[in-house]
Specification:
One of its GO terms (molecular function) is oxidoreductase activity. The protein has about 260 residues and is an alpha/beta fold. The protein is about 45% helix and about 15% strand. The chain is built from eight helices and seven strands.
Length: about 260
């Protein structure tokens, strides 16, 4: 299936590893001509760029920066004003229940999960609007629809981003733009392991038991980063041209089962 992405330019945040990196490779596989990759790790971004350039005919630009800092998000939007696709993916919400999290932890988590997404969306949207076309995909998380008191920062930020995506996407076609969201459940990434270890510590008093939590999933496994990436790329394409203002959940049935994880 030709997704019609040849010649397009995309910006992906959180692109040095995990879902972001997998999304970069999936875009490159579909013939995207220019990729802008942003993350905190310069070394990780450089490695991602080298791997992409070696395996695909793609122009890759890297932007090492902390997007929790508003000035950095504004600068990234300025550098990437011409992109056709924005994938907001950079986030690192802390795990734990309310009584274990300080105000600073809340602010640090939500500066990345909410404010970097909002700032980049607002600034890139303006450029897309001037051209009458564009797609914004927000990688959010299924805890936004399945509230989780043991991941209360993440569940709050995700619910806010779901509302943001639906509100903006409900009007964005007036400007020729689509805004959609993706709600992954657990995904086999380094970040998932960190969150699972914290949950195992809270539940069992032993973070080494984190793999036992897989038995609670309907599919008995997490998603792969590539499974989520392929969904993001499809939603970015003309094949999904009638989809906006909605959230697509990819969690192996966890939210539908109302599982606690």
């Amino acid at each position: 299936m030709d997704l019609g992405l040849k010649g397009k330019a995309a910006l992906i945040t959180g692109a040095s590893k995990g879902i972001g990196l997998a999304t970069a490779h999936s875009f490159a596989n579909e013939g995207v001509s220019t990729l802008h990759l942003a993350a905190r790790s310069e070394a990780g971004l450089a490695a991602a760029r080298d791997a992409l350039v070696q395996s695909h005919d793609v122009d890759v630009h890297i932007h090492p920066m902390d997007l929790a800092v508003n000035a950095n998000a504004m600068e990234l939007a300025r550098r990437c004003a011409g992109v056709d696709i924005l994938v907001n993916n950079a986030a690192d919400s802390a795990a734990g229940p309310l009584d274990k999290l300080s105000d600073q932890v809340w602010r640090d988590s939500l500066d990345m999960k909410i404010f970097s997404y909002v700032t980049l969306s607002r600034e890139i949207y303006a450029h897309m609007k001037s051209r009458g076309a564009g797609v914004i995909v927000n990688d959010i998380g299924n805890s936004g629809e399945n509230p989780d008191a043991d991941y209360i920062v993440g569940t709050t930020g995700n619910a806010a981003m779901m509302a943001f995506t639906r509100a903006l996407g409900g009007r964005s076609l007036d400007d020729g733009i689509r805004v959609v969201g993706v709600n992954p459940g657990p995904v086999a990434t380094d970040r998932m392991v960190k969150l699972m270890k914290r949950r195992a510590l809270d539940w069992y008093g032993d973070e080494a038991r984190w793999e036992e939590l897989f038995d609670k999933y309907p599919a008995k496994r997490p998603a792969s980063a590539e499974e989520v990436a392929d969904l993001i790329v499809w939603l970015s394409s003309a094949r999904a041209g009638y989809i906006t203002g909605t959230i697509v959940t990819i969690d192996g049935g966890i939210a539908s089962r109302r599982s606690i994880i």
